[in-house]
Predict the structure.
Amino acid sequence: MAGTPQNPANTGQSRKPTSGVRYVRSVAVAGQTSTPGDPAANGAASGAGNPALSKRPPAVGARPLPSRAQSPAGGKRKRLGELLLEANVIDQDQLEHALKIHRQTGKQLGRVLVDTNLVEENELIKYLAVNLGVESVNLNDENLKIESDAVLLIQERQARRFNLIAFRLEDDKETLHVAMANPADVIAIDTIKSLTGKSVKVYIGSRIAIADAIDKHYAQQYSLDQMGEDLKSVDAELVEDMDDDLGLDNDAIDAASNAPVVKYVNATLMEAVKQRASDIHFEPFEREVAVRFRIDGALREVTAPPKRLMNAVVSRIKIISGLDIAERRLPQDGRCKLKLGDRVVDMRVSTLPVVHGEKVVMRILDKSATSMDIDSLGFDPMTLKEMKRVLQTPHGVIVLTGPTGSGKTTTLYSFLKHIYSPEINIVTVEDPVEYQLPGVNQVQVRANIGMTFAAALRSILRQDPDVVMIGEMRDQETLEIAVRAALTGHLVFSTIHTNTAVATVTRMADMGLARYMITSALICAISQRLIRMICPKCKEQYTPSEALQNQLAQSFRQPSVEIDLWRGKGCTFCNNSGYKGRLAVHEYMTMTPKLREMIIAQRPENELEEECQRNGQRTLRQSCFMKLLDGLTTVEEAVSLFYED
Ligand SMILES: [Zn+2]
């Protein structure tokens, strides 16, 4: 693709001619340049940079102005000045003064008038409205209802690009009322008409009020136009990874290198990282495309490209991930790197042919994401104390269990970080290396060249380690090497796929490990889940229905439950989900002489669990219930954990 597209239309701009230039052009057009017929030339853009909106807002909502004026081409500048003079808003000297600044600085007359406090922005808008023959609207007016039906007819991207927001639907929903900073922008109006299929009634509104309304009403949908600076560095980084020899399909490469496509992909990846998403899904359907971010474990839809651009978007992702863009019938796996300032974010990319195209999922491996502090993982004080004690053990196996996406790796990393000291040699073998830990030797599994967990582990053990972390024990060979390492004086951390802590024993036995080996090596098994936390900004207490009370009692095996329950109402801070962030809940089993006996005697899991509880350990269910009592999560979220059981 053209890494540094030069844009002749932009040469008059102060922006640097880098790859980002073309991308920010829409911003420039909206805010800084004048195009023919743009009322910015006579001041519509005057609000930019001036936070002071009218202290005396004109009448409620949208309203017609008393008189309309023709706006013959070429006569606008004079007419605005004349209008203001006639209305005694300014006098001749003030107009001369403003015109002089306008000529010297090239600033638009309207902006000069606002910047020099000669005219308030809302006042100016009224005259511009007359000047242009449109009505004005005050979006800040509390009595003006901004209808979200109307807002969402226009994509946020378009709204920002053209600096407009739809606020009302009338005439059987056939007429869309749109507030524009530049009501003379015929391209914008035509675009909105064809996108929505509605007729459009245009109002003039303050640029700042429109931008605020966009921020507010599109909530946290991502905004392409705010990413100018970052886009440049992203581009530079992604370009390096490109391989010119991929050029089998020139049309596809051309399409994928098209600036809006590149911009869209970059902006989407960046936004996903910004929102701390763990995955991005690009999903083609028959007529449209869905793009979803997984945030705090739940998928959330974000702005999608039009269906016709989907192939180009997929090709672009393939190019930056080193995949074959000509191969659309087979699944592929790749990787790419995104650089955001000092941060480097790795992404694993996988494509899958589906009925209506190719679905792409990108897993974000943000190496700087978490502080990974053992104290901030959500362990209750008693468990935390026990974990710190267990971590002092010089050798043995410590296992984290739980389904995929339950945060096991993060907890393992925080354990490693907790015990790290320059006197010990820590080596990890992982697939993939998700975070880079300072002072730790991390080995990436590469099964395709024979570097499996087991093979890597054998080599690692010849490297004189004190502590070994194995990403996952999924086969007998790996498990046996790990246990042998533990029995020969190493501290071994790993994960295993089971639901409960005590099930680790069964799983290890099923994988062919002798029970006496299990009891000698295993120090502690911890089962972990992540639950969503109630949004702190819209948290409210409520009285649950009887049905819910019963469900609660049943799920938590409490005879009668009378507790204060909380939930999130939904607000812009939490994207109306009512949740923000996640919290880990745990149960664990630490080996005791009594448990050793029971395991050797092949006692069933429920007896092992009871023994753990006699030792004062909580089950997952009980930990979850504690989070409910603390008002940190909802009943729905807590109960959903146990559907799997
Ligand atoms: Zn909220």
